[in-house]
Amino acid sequence: MFTMKRLADCTITEAVQAWNEGFEGYYFDMKMTPDSFLKRLGTYGLSATHSVVAFDGDQPIGLVVNGIRTAKGIKLAYNGGTGVKMSYRNDGVGQLLMDEVLAIYQRENVQLATLEAIKENERAISLYKKKGYEIVDYVDHYQAMNFTPIIVADSPYTYTNAYKWEITSLDFYNERAPWQTQCDHIPDAQYVLAKDERGEVVGYAVYRSAVDPHKKKLITTLMQCEVNEGNGQRTCYDGLLTQVFHPSKEMIRLAACIQQSNETLAKALADWGFERTVEQVYMTKAISS
């Protein structure tokens, strides 16, 4: 008989075993150490209290890692990873985990649950659909394979570095962007504002830069980029991309979790020589009180 425990009631050894065995054979190498697992929880605002581990006897056989936050008056939940040990993947463990998770969401008065899944992971997507999730968007991950920046001459926009609070207080800040692209969940994030000729903020970008210790190269990853402007929208996007990716510098250029519904940004990235490396579905479920 399978039992459920909150992650907070498990040892770190049990938690890491559940994660590593749960994601065995996944599309990417998801293996973690205790240190990297704890770092992931902290970085992405994931909650041990609201996360669940499945057991068969005393052996962990699966888990769901969750985060809960309130954004603009809406209580949101995020499924930051569902994994089931390979030998148990036909035994209904995933459904039991999701039932437990959704019960937690309801008790916590969550209003909207979100998650992403690899587009090809039809088994997981089918499970989420059974539990009431719907695909509302797709998100893409990019890398600049043939970097061809578009420099705009005589731009009507000016660009300045900014603080996090200046971004998150904007009326058009995208609170519904994927969880890991939210400002609170990006270590060492950097911010850029775009202003029009009247000095009004019309766009922003959120990104991070770090040095790859193996390749000894700077890696810059765009996490969010939004423009609240009419006819000049594409010009503003090109200017923000210039500020983020510094055409004169040598670096690896990436973009993470870019929503396909932002068609202007997706087109700009393609024009700049970015190619999609991973496609995910973005799913949500309204939680009734």
UniProtKB/TrEMBL annotation:
Q: Which residues form the N-acetyltransferase domain?
A: 2-150
The record's InterPro entries line, in alphabetical order, gives:
Acyl_CoA_acyltransferase, GNAT_dom
Pfam families attached here? Acetyltransf_1
* Gene Ontology molecular function: acyltransferase activity, transferring groups other than amino-acyl groups
According to UniProt, the name of this protein is: N-acetyltransferase domain-containing protein
Q: Which organism is it from?
A: Priestia koreensis
